[in-house]
Amino acid sequence: MSETGKAFEELVAIMARLRAPDGCPWDREQTFDSLKKYLIEETYETVDALNNRDMNELRGELGDLLLQILFQSQLAQEQGDFDINDVIEGISSKLIRRHPHVFGETEVSCAEEVVHHWEKIKRDEKGFEHRKSVLDGVPRTLPALMLAMEISKRAAKTGFEWPDLDAVVEKLHEEVEELKHELKNGDSERISDEIGDLLFTAVNIARWKKVDPEDALRSMTQRFGDRFRQIEEAAKSEGKSIEEMSIEEMDAVWNQAKQSEIKKMG
Predict the structure, then answer these.
(1) Model confidence at 127, in pLDDT bands (50, 70, 90)?
(2) Distances from the Cα of 26 to the Cα of 15, 23, 30, 70, 123, angstroms
(3) Other C-beta atoms within 10 Å of 164: how many?
(4) Region of residue 138 (phi > 0: left; psi between -120 and 50: alpha; otherwise: beta)
(5) Cα-based distances in Å from 128 to 47, 136, 262
(6) Which of 145, 204, 128, 134 is nearest to 169 (CA)?
(7) Dist CA 46 CA 52 (whole Å)
(8) d(Cα 98, Cα 90) in Å, to the nearest integer?
């Protein structure tokens, strides 16, 4: 057996030991539902490690994420549904089946063709025959921007699409004007609707330009935080609280921080 195989078997055995009658009380108390929050938390911590490009941190977070997969599989094994071997065999079969250009005779010339074949193979698989809409199967628990992107992609694949990027940008301006109108009226429900329309259109612009809107907003939030902290530092260096700064002083520090970022980029 390879070193990888031995290490994996040892990890599976550790998980089983933790769930044993004489194992860890906390691990024994866990259920499928109680573990959901940890699965989500570990996923986001892994994404943070990726964003930070910290390989040591990433290694640790991938381990934590793998533990969640093993934990859920152990629970399933205990009640006789499936075990980790079934999980591995399932994904192995799926990868081979959905890559006929690698493991079969199908020929493709680009990544777009790979995606086209992937989607066609998915539609022919067991379980997909019950789907009545191309939008069925999109997890509603996805973060809103990711959900919007996936819904938008699926609709566009059917031909429900703007003719070009300019048309999407025009739609964005239209949504801004509609939001302005509702802001004057003061109807909170309509304002919420228009903000949603505006965000969804922005997501479509991201899709056209192959930009991940979740990453884009996360990066902007990081930039905002960095600049705001510089405003706080500027206030502290002057011996006062940030609340004592004028908006003009705040803007001056903000713009200086922004220009520094631009210089670093180019």
Answers:
(1) low
(2) 12, 9, 7, 16, 41
(3) 10
(4) beta
(5) 29, 9, 48
(6) 204
(7) 10
(8) 12
Over range 227-253, report the average pLDDT.
94
Dihedral angle sign, alpha carbons of residues 151, 153, 156, 161 = positive
Residue 175 and residue 201 in contact, taking contact as beta carbons nearer than 8 Å: yes
Which pLDDT tens digit goes with each residue over 51-60?
899 999 999 9
Residue pair 155/135 in contact (Cβ under 8 Å)? The answer is: yes
Tokens of 75: 């629970």
Is pLDDT at 122 greater than 80 in this prediction? no
- The span from the CA of 80 to the CA of 192, in Å, is 47
pLDDT at position 248 over 70: yes
pLDDT for the residue 245: 94
pLDDT tens digits along 180-207: 999 999 999 999 999 999 999 999 999 9
Q: In whole angstroms, how far apart are CA 66 and each of 42, 79, 222, 261, 263? A: 9, 21, 28, 37, 40
Q: Report d(CA 30, CA 73) in Å as an integer.
A: 13
**Which run of H or E residues covers position 28?**
helix 25-29
Q: Say how far apart CA 226 and CA 203 lie, in whole Å.
A: 24
How much is the mean pLDDT over the chain?
92
- Predicted TM-score (pTM) of the model is 0.70
Q: The tokens 């002057």 sit on which residue?
A: 238
Note the pLDDT of residue 217. 94
Q: Output the six-digit token pair for 35.
A: 């573990």
122: tokens are: 């998915």
Alpha-carbon distance of 261 to 153, in angstroms, equals 33
> Closest Cα to residue 151, out of 193, 201, 192, 189?
201
